[in-house]
Amino acid sequence: MATLSGKNVLVIGGSSGIGYATAAGAIEQGANVTIASRSEEKLRAAQAALQGKVQARALDVADTAAVEAFFGASPVYDHIVVSGAAFKFGTVRDQNIDDAYAAMNVKFWGAYRVARMARVAPGGSFVFVSGFLSRRPKPNMVLVGAINAALETLAQGLALEMAPVRFNVVSPGIIDTPTRAAMPADARKALLENAAKGLPVKRVGLAEDCADQILLMLRNTFMTGSVVYIDGGGLLV
Ligand SMILES: NC(=O)c1ccc[n+]([C@@H]2O[C@H](COP(=O)([O-])OP(=O)(O)OC[C@H]3O[C@@H](n4cnc5c(N)ncnc54)[C@H](OP(=O)(O)O)[C@@H]3O)[C@@H](O)[C@H]2O)c1
């Protein structure tokens, strides 16, 4: 398997959760890592936690001009991971339509913009992070499932259209990351405990569970168009 040593790896969403764990893992494997996300404060905190071993650049993938400017002033990366997204949930009838558009704009169109504008070195690859709701739609999260399904199909189409650049997708189940930090602590704990009970593996995922798979996808040069569900068996129950 190829090595990440000396490779330039960009992790969008690298200031938190799955993206942060991916950045940390890539550093351990000897890559030159850049993390990107919207908040300068979060980027600085992540940089400090990673002992200054990463570069950090602000980027909002929902902003077409910002994505263009970012890649216009970028080195050629070997690998790009798109894990950056944040949006509101709600039922189709009740969710504000502008929030619904915004969710699609950041998670689906964000990845589309990055794939469209970034240039990667020969032998390079992209990994998108979707979510198992693509295969397991849930009430109140219908739109997110549809966005994840679109993202998975986008990657598979790009694996053909942009070949030999490789595109793969990690599709997480329930992962304990800062994404639920705004929930009251008790409610968050109950949600995660309840989710764990219902899974074959009897625990929820950690960011590292997804990061390990992402890093394998970057290194495995025979892997493209693959969607791997890291969900503790969530699709089986
Ligand atoms: N955690 C789960 O249970 C779970 C399950 C299924 C799928 N996923 C998916 O996994 C991905 C990562 O989630 P996570 O749990 O690691 O979340 P997280 O800990 O909240 O991290 C999200 C990251 O994305 C960045 N981000 C948000 N909006 C952005 C934008 N417009 N442009 C650039 N960066 C942006 C955030 O930083 P800033 O705020 O600084 O921008 C942060 O670094 C998401 O796509 C999420 O939908 C997560």
What this model shows, in words?
The protein is an alpha/beta fold. The protein has helices at 17-28, 40-49, 64-72, 97-117, 142-161, 185-197, 207-219; strands at 8-12, 32-37, 54-58, 77-82, 120-129, 166-172, 175-176, 205-206, 227-230. It has a single domain, classed as 3-Layer(aba) Sandwich (Rossmann fold), CATH 3.40.50.720. It is built from seven helices and nine strands; from the N terminus they run βαβαβαβαβαββαβαβ. α1 (17-28) packs across α7, α3 packs parallel to α4 and α4 (97-117) packs parallel to α5. It is globular. The two termini are 33 Å apart. It binds NADP nicotinamide-adenine-dinucleotide phosphate. NADP nicotinamide-adenine-dinucleotide phosphate is lined by residues 12-13, 15-19, 37-39, 42, 59-62, 83-86, 106-107, 129, 131, 172, 174-175, 177-179.
Which class best fits the helix and strand makeup? alpha/beta
CATH topology: Rossmann fold
CATH superfamily: NAD(P)-binding Rossmann-like Domain
The first-level CATH class name: Alpha Beta
- State the separation between the terminal residues, measured CA to CA: 33 Å
Show unreliable segments: none
**Spatial strand sequence of the major β-sheet:** 3-2-1-4-5-6-9
How much helix, percentage-wise, in residues? 40-55%
Total domain modules: 1
* Global Rg: 17 Å
- For the record, the CATH architecture stands as 3-Layer(aba) Sandwich
Reported for the largest beta sheet, the result is: 7 strands, parallel
What molecules are bound to this protein?
Answer: NADP nicotinamide-adenine-dinucleotide phosphate
Strand content: 15-25%
Would you report the number of β strands?
9
The helix count comes to: 7
Overall pLDDT confidence: 97
Principal-axes geometry comes out as: globular
**What letter string, H or E per element, gives the SSE order?**
EHEHEHEHEHEEHEHE
